[in-house]
Amino acid sequence: MPLQMNEDMQALHQDIVRRNAGEREFQQAVAEVLGSLGPVLSKHPEFRDNRALERLIEPERQIIFRVPWQDDSGRVHINRGFRVESNSALGPYKGGLRFHPSVNLSVIKFLGFEQVFKNALTGMPLGGGKGGSDFDPKGRSDGEVMRFCQSFMTELYRHLGEYTDVPAGDIGVGQREIGYLFGQYKRITNRYESGVLTGKGLDWGGALVRREATGYGLAYFVQEMLRARNDSLDGKTCIVSGSGNVAIYTIEKIHALGGRVVACSDSRGVLHDDTGIDVTAVKQIKEVGRGPLDRYMLLTGRGRHVPGGSIWDAPCHVALPCATQNELNGSDAETLVRHGCVVVAEGANMPATPEAIRVFQEQGTAFAPGKAANAGGVATSALEMQQNASRDAWTFEYTEQRLAEIMRGIHERCHDTAAEYGTPGNYVNGANIAGFIKVARAMVALGVI
Ligand code: NDP
């Protein structure tokens, strides 16, 4: 049984496991939230009587569809597409699309569930959802990716709309894929509905800072965590797993705020550079060429690449998992703590296992869950939607300033809520409780729907 649950929560957990058999990631994400909410339901009988929690756990709609497409040699492939519309009490469903071979219903349901809390924490009018496919874009030509995206959108478009459901990117879905998806949506509907997707290119409705937002937001959140401990990022040694969108812009902003990132990784291995990772070189490898990280030494003449190694063995003050779910386990957490790590914040969604979270909490390492620490991406997506609705375009500086304010607000909400419920410094409780109360209040107000 993960984390502490009272008796009511244990009974609910058993029911969730029975009704969602085999959905390991979804069960894990729900269990983490149940571990925080016992005191909230005692304090708010209206949430219990309206079964707000049970309704929130059951997605409003789950769409699964066939995605047939042809590769460059004419061979037909069949993938599976998903969109889970988790909750729309606060606004239209909002959440990214993931294209990766590991995608299945459990992964998309867990991501959609987490997204509801995350979006609520931003304070913006957004519901939560998530989608994707088990399609692997790696090694595919632009033409193949385009045909896949067109086939995917040919089914999905009927469920979308700027006031209904607004997808964005995630693993394997960047600006190229959003472009092909938006093009097909526009073609089918004959509407230039900019607000239907976020993460668009700057020439066709996109907003400045969206690409940088999740990583920059994470760095701002870490700054606030350290400030709450009367400390700062100045001179701190940091490690960042992954080398995709979130990792790259986390490294960039951590450096700007005075920290030094000495290691990052990809699915093939770990890159160490004690002088500080050269983020321009990582961008060159991953954003321009989509290649492996071991090219770094060729480009910079420094660093060391360890194929298949674990990044969590590298000594650091701050550890930021930014690759994928369950990438940091209990024994990794013990190693980090032993090496003097004082802050861990999730850039990825659910990268730390329940055992790892327990180690951090027992050992006094400040730990922030992704639903709080990586909310900068979706918050900036909401800013993109605002600009689309008003046909306006804000400057980089103004948008980044809004992002920094939003991240400070999320930190404060989590920090203060954790203290109010008798667990000061517990960001997991703070995020789960603050997010839940916001959504549950709206659900009660809207009636049993
Ligand atoms: P990308 O596809 O841009 O990058 C993912 C990175 O993680 C790649 O470098 C990939 O390596 C690496 N990776 C994947 N699996 C593993 C693994 N098992 N071990 C080590 N490295 C691995 O994705 P994003 O950066 O967009 O997303 C990363 C995480 O952040 C996800 O959990 C996502 O849900 C979350 N997130 C993303 C947001 C966004 O705005 N993009 C917003 C909020 C959360 P390789 O290059 O070899 O493929």
Q: Helix and strand layout, with pairings?
A:
Layout: H1 7-19, H2 24-43, H3 45-49, H4 52-57, E1 61-70, E2 76-87, E3 93-99, H5 105-121, E4 128-133, H6 142-156, E5 165-168, H7 175-189, H8 210-228, E6 237-240, H9 245-256, E7 260-266, E8 269-272, H10 279-288, H11 296-300, E9 304-307, E10 318-320, H12 330-338, E11 343-345, H13 354-363, E12 366-368, H14 370-373, H15 376-390, H16 396-420, H17 427-446
Parallel strand pairs: 3-4, 3-5, 6-7, 6-10, 10-11, 11-12
Antiparallel strand pairs: 1-2, 2-4, 7-8, 8-9
Descriptive tags:
single chain; 449 residues; alpha/beta; Glutamate Dehydrogenase, Chain A, domain 3; Rossmann fold; 3 domains; seven-stranded mixed β-sheet; five-stranded mixed β-sheet; 17 helices; 12 strands; 15% strand; binds NADPH dihydro-nicotinamide-adenine-dinucleotide phosphate
